[in-house]
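Practice problem 4.
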């Protein structure tokens, strides 16, 4: 019994010191004992970050197909719509949608469409792309005061990839210009600088008789700002 008591007393004296020492000692983990997944995780994250900040492959060759459209759009200037002609690349889906046989496609803002090889449309080609070759697009723009769209180079490569995946969408022959479309820019006006302002009118309508927000009847105005 005496030896048991001495053992208990010794344990009570040593245990607090051991706990304090363990808590204050820095923790060291050996990578040799860590799971392989835990060791490689930082390296994997770094590789993903590297992909995110580097340029991705274009995915096209200079001989691949691109389509370009001349669209009539609008800009809002001091409350008035002003027409503007814009040159922009077309995706395969857009080209098929507006084509579908002569005069059989959907109504569109595209007045004219032209097809070119990537190497002809892009200055520097896929090896060193620097911009869009507007001289090559001269037949598309003929007779119009047009400007190139924003981010034209990136959009051209993205649209070109859709046409490469779907050759049947390449309905305009390379080097040719087509005008056989249902061109009507006024049916659904494309307003380039339109800002969508969200307000209470965008919410689900509630009958005024059960309105709990204290809102009154609103007067209607027409698009010109005059009272109806």
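Answer key:
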């Amino acid at each position: 019994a005496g030896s048991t008591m001495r053992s208990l007393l010794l344990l009570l004296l040593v245990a607090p010191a051991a706990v304090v020492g363990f808590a204050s000692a820095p923790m060291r983990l050996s990578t040799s004992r860590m799971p392989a997944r835990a060791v490689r995780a930082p390296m994997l994250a770094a590789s993903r970050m590297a992909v995110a900040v580097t340029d991705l492959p274009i995915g096209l060759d200079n001989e691949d197909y691109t389509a370009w459209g001349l669209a009539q759009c609008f800009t809002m200037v001091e409350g008035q719509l002003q027409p503007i002609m814009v040159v922009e690349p077309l995706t395969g889906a857009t080209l098929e949608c507006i084509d579908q046989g002569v005069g059989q496609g959907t109504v569109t803002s595209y007045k004219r469409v032209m097809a070119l090889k990537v190497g002809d449309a892009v200055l520097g080609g896929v090896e060193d792309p620097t911009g869009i070759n507007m001289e090559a697009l001269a037949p598309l723009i003929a007779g119009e005061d047009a400007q190139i769209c924003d981010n034209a180079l990136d959009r051209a490569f993205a649209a070109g990839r859709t046409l490469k995946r779907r050759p049947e969408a390449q309905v305009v022959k390379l080097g040719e210009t087509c005008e056989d479309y249902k061109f009507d820019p006024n049916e659904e006006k494309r307003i380039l600088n339109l800002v969508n302002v969200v307000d209470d009118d965008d919410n689900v309508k509630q009958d005024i008789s059960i309105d709990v927000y204290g809102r009154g009847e609103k007067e209607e105005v027409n698009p010109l700002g005059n009272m109806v």
